C-alpha cells in the first residue's frame, strides 16, 4: 500500500506497476498483500494501472483447480 488509494502491483508479465483503487472497489473491498487482482494497464503510461477486481481465496482455489491459472 502506498497511500491515497494507490498500491504497488506485480503483474504476471513481470512489470511492477502503481495501481489505483477505483472508488467502486475502494468502498466494497479490502485489498491485502498476496491477493489476486485483475488490473488494466493505462494506454499512455505502461507503469500505471487501474485495479478492477479482487479474487478471494475460494475463487483463487477454484481457478487453480480448473487450470485457469498457470501456478
TrEMBL record:
UniProt keyword Lipid metabolism present: no
Q: Which CDD domains match?
A: S1_IF1A
Q: Per its UniProt record, what InterPro entries does this chain match? A: NA-bd_OB-fold, RNA-binding_domain_S1_IF1, TIF_eIF-1A, TIF_eIF-1A_CS
Which GO terms fall under molecular function for this chain's record? RNA binding; translation initiation factor activity
User: Keywords assigned by UniProt?
Assistant: Initiation factor, Protein biosynthesis
Is the NAD keyword given for this protein? no
The family database entries (PROSITE patterns) matched by this protein are listed as: IF1A (PS01262), S1_IF1_TYPE (PS50832)
Question: Which residue ranges does the record assign to the S1-like domain?
Answer: 1-56
Protein family (similarity comment)? Belongs to the eIF-1A family.
UniProt xrefs under PANTHER family? EIF-1A
Role noted for this protein: Seems to be required for maximal rate of protein biosynthesis. Enhances ribosome dissociation into subunits and stabilizes the binding of the initiator Met-tRNA(I) to 40 S ribosomal subunits.
Its name, as the record gives it, is Translation initiation factor 1A
Annotated source species? Methanoculleus thermophilus
Ranked from the top, the taxonomy reads: Archaea, Methanobacteriati, Methanobacteriota, Stenosarchaea group, Methanomicrobia
Amino acid at each position: 500500500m502506498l497511500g491515497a488509494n494507490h498500491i504497488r502491483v506485480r503483474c504476471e508479465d513481470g512489470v511492477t506497476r502503481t495501481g489505483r483503487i477505483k472508488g467502486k472497489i475502494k468502498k466494497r473491498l479490502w485489498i491485502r498483500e498476496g491477493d489476486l487482482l485483475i488490473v488494466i494497464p493505462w494506454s499512455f503510461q505502461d507503469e500505471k494501472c487501474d485495479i478492477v477486481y479482487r479474487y478471494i481465496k475460494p475463487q483463487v482455489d477454484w481457478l487453480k483447480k480448473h487450470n485457469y491459472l498457470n501456478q
